[in-house]
Amino acid sequence: MAQIALAPEVITTLGSFKITNTILATILVDVIVLSLVFYIRTTLSKIPSKIQLVVEGVIEYFYTLTQQISGKFTNDIFPWFASFFIFIFAANIIGLLPGFGSIGFFHHKDGHEFFVPILRATTSDFNATFALATISLAATHILAIKYNGIVDYLKRFFSLNPIFLFVGLLELVSEFTKIVSLSFRLFGNIYAGEVVIHTISSLFAFVAPIPFLLLESIVALVQALVFSMLTMVFMTILITPHNEETHST
Question: What is the pTM of this model?
Answer without folding.
Answer: 0.87
